[in-house]
Specification:
Zincin-like, 3 domains, 3-stranded mixed β-sheet
């Protein structure tokens, strides 16, 4: 697979708002498989990092999709990227591209093709994610009963958590909320923690359904975030990024002045 074919396949997965270039470096890198240059909108793939053949091509295209996700992310922000590149928004974009590429037959989801790995995935989901989720619900049920008993005995439930159970109050709140909301245990405790933070029942049910359908945590979080607030105007995003950078530069200038003053005093 050459660089022109890779770009053509990326365009088949999703059309970007801004054009980009893609080149093979013809080199091998020990640090990264590829990179994206936002200022020139250029994707560079270190193609010598990948072996020849179908397996290597699949790994190479994964790298291309990863860097392309940075480009799509930049397009949504008016051509710029945040200071921290690998945000939840970026990962949600990457997962969307991977799913689209797999559906189009351009990328192989090897996690599902391996029988051994698929069996292990099923075991982890059932034995650990679901069972731990069920334990969280059971804990929430017992804690709700304990709160009633504390009130009947004239004691503070928070003091009971602190000194008798010795567990963080946030843990207790999560467990009780999960039970109160009757969350499905299959997504596992970590995802249930996010679901328990969603107050709106319809939004919570939609997010839970997305988890059960196999959406990644980042994708679900961005879905919920998009419903809560309208999409940010790219120009407004640039203004905010400019203001953030200016504040950072001012803070660095002040820090530099302080260091210079200490150096002068030390001489």
């Amino acid at each position: 697979m050459n660089q022109d074919q890779v770009k053509m396949n990326l365009l088949a997965v999703e059309e970007p708002a801004l054009d980009f270039s893609l080149v093979f470096s013809g080199k091998k890198s020990r640090k990264v498989n590829g990179l994206y240059k936002c200022d020139t909108r250029e994707i560079i793939i270190h193609n010598k990092n990948f072996e020849a053949g179908e397996r290597g091509d699949n790994l190479l295209f994964y790298t291309a999709l990863h860097e392309y996700a940075h480009h799509i992310h930049a397009c949504a922000r008016g051509g710029t990227l945040p200071s921290r590149a690998h945000t939840a928004e970026f990962r949600a974009i990457l997962h969307r591209l991977l799913e689209a590429a797999a559906a189009a037959g351009l990328y192989r989801n090897v996690f599902e093709e391996s029988r051994e790995l698929s069996a292990l995935t099923a075991l982890i989901r059932e034995k650990y994610l679901r069972e731990n989720g069920e334990l969280l619900l059971a804990l929430g049920e017992h804690l709700m009963k304990a709160r009633q008993l504390c009130e009947a005995a004239g004691g503070r439930f928070e003091d009971y958590l602190d000194r008798s159970l010795c567990i963080p109050r946030a843990t207790a709140t999560l467990a009780m909320r999960a039970k109160q909301f009757n969350l499905d245990p299959r997504p596992g405790p970590s995802n249930m923690q996010f679901l328990a933070s969603i107050r709106d029942e319809d939004e919570r049910k939609a997010a839970e359904a997305a988890f059960l359908e196999g959406d990644s945590p980042d994708k679900v979080r961005m879905m919920v975030k998009a419903k809560k607030q309208p999409a940010e105007d790219p120009v407004e995003a640039l203004h905010k990024e400019k203001a953030r950078l200016e504040r950072t530069i001012d803070a660095l200038h002040k820090k530099l002045e302080e260091v210079e003053e200490k150096l002068r005093a030390a001489v």
